[in-house]
Specification:
alpha/beta; Rossmann fold; Dihydrodipicolinate Reductase, domain 2; 2 domains; 6-stranded parallel beta sheet; 10 helices; 15 strands; 33% helix; globular
Amino acid sequence: MVRVGIAGIGFMGVTHFKAYQQLEGPESAQVAAVFTRDEKKLAGDWSNVRGNFGGAGGVQDLTDVRKYRDLEALLADPEIDLLDLCLPSYLHREVAIRAMEAGKHVLVEKPIALSVEDADAMIETAERTGRLLMVAQVLRFWPEFAAIKDLIDSGDHGELLGAHFKRVISRPDWSGDNWFSDPAKTGGAVVDLHIHDTDFVQYLFGAPSEVWSSGVVSASGQIDYLVTEYRFAGRNVCISAQSGAIAQKGIEFEHGFDVYFERAMLKHNSSTTPALELYTADGGKETLTPRIKDGFVEQLATAIRGVQSGRLPEPLAARGARNSLATVLAEAESVRRGQPVTLS
């Protein structure tokens, strides 16, 4: 059984902890240790932990879980196979590199890092140490989004011609400390939020040749909202996405898409169209049941299989996450320059 240590008990650390409990059979895993400096969380009281969807963390039984207040002690634990890194984004490079050098495989929460240079350093360390570096870009596993990939692969409705993705939240006020409100530590709405859809676009189509983005820039210079057109040279496809922290408190979180195939349209919106609706060329309408039931469980099961086999799972490969980071940074540059940006 793969033994996991979770570093960071915030919203994603709690979400991953709960998802590990649902893994069964050959993909089961044991959360053997957690790291946090919060004494209340070390006691299992996670009731104040929440995010922009889902409920609070509740109270967890940590009787059989080793509890570390010192990160070095967790990294030195010889019984940990996989470090699940859910610490703030600005710490990803340092902690991931130290973990791999200590012999651990690493699953790091998105974004992989805040700069391409940091991401490259992490990938170099993985190659040098022979450890797996996986990045939790969960949208690739999210049931409704994974259904798009399934339909593309099946070819049942022809080629995908166009798609528009949407991801909008109200400004978070649920973080228990100040790091999440500091764009220098999160990358702001572009790197922390919009990277979900940019990564998914690249998962479906590969890297765009060019991005053209417009956006709303705050008085502090941060991009709070943007709309991007992804251009793919030589391909007859039109793809766009909008994202940002611009909604009001009545809508804490909303995501969705309209996807157009030659002979069908697929529609989903977490607020207005929660079902996955397929409209076909003959005028029919069908509610699809996604193949995946829980995106976080599927993502972690994939990571566990990677550790067991010693082979990097392609949907979690750090190189793809690194390229997605490079693309969203190019989008931010496009907003500021007011013109398209070409990607190498």
